[in-house]
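Technical note accompanying the year-one report. For the benefit of new consortium partners, we illustrate the data format agreed upon in the data management plan: each record pairs a sequence with a structure-token string. No post-processing was applied to the example shown here.
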Amino acid sequence: MFPCIEINLLKLKHNTKVICDMCKKADINVWGVTKCICAMPEAAQAMIDGGAICIGDSRVENLKKLKNINCKKVLLRIPMACEADDVIRYSDLSLNSELSTLKSLGEAAKKAGKKHDVVIMIDLGDLREGILPKDADGFVKEALKIEGIKIAGFGVNLTCYGGVIPDENNLKELVDISLKLNEKYDLGIKIISGGNSSSLYLLADGKMPHGINNLRLGESILLGRETSFQTRIYNTYDDVFILKAKIVELKEKPSIPTGNIGKDAFGNTPSFKDKGIRKRAIIAAGRQDIEPLNIHSIDDENIRVIGASSDHTIVDVTDSKKNYKVGDILSFKMDYGCLLKAFTSDYVKKIIIDK
């Protein structure tokens, strides 16, 4: 049973509804993104019930899990040509930036008797996936020659790699490029996707450029915050997911190791500050399961994570007013990276609650 994550589906549905309602006022629809939670079907359904119009994920393997969810599915990571058949089988739309991959998708779509929708990604400075603006016209011209696919729109990714923050200028550039190409080639596009949870602050500030009609939202729904400035979103929960782990050792020990210090298990040279004798609890979860320095106690502000190895996390409980014992459970909120790691780990149990 431990370590485990408790997932509150009612809170997840609530978060989705709050954010979708906010987006709807600006004529923006929402794709719920499930890659952080490995496309848990129950969570995906909660997003759909909350107002997301479809579900997006980065892996075909995850989209396979959602085949019984009655909604459209989007492959968010640009596909590999070798998975073209599965992309067509398990997704209704995919994000793309390579002509050779579009040709593979077109062939797979024709073989399946389908027409596959694609969103062409434009790189506006974050330097992850996407076509540079100067190359967009030529790309579209060539893409239109490929049978089996249809250009459904254009999109951008920001913040994830280069940390570039969405703003009125770069998203307006996306709109301008999209509308220009739509008019020139009579594309009939329906999607101008203005990014991820990092774009939400523009909506809250009333600065979202007109023409953006889609956002791909994961972290904001899951954790109740936008990601450009880590600001909490009003009337959302930040405790949809709770990590619980048991104390397996509780002892008073020195705060500095004894002996010559070399590399730790992960190749780092640790440093320590002498704080005297401290009471330390070890919980049965480590860096193979979570990001230990990115968890935050939900019921004891006086405990502090001080380090971890692959299987153990050390928590300083000296200043706590609680009388902890071996076998007690500590509960934590997680940031995005920790949640992703915990969901990916088979050693962390996932427990759904509806209350």
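Partners are asked to follow this layout when depositing records. The mean pLDDT is 98.
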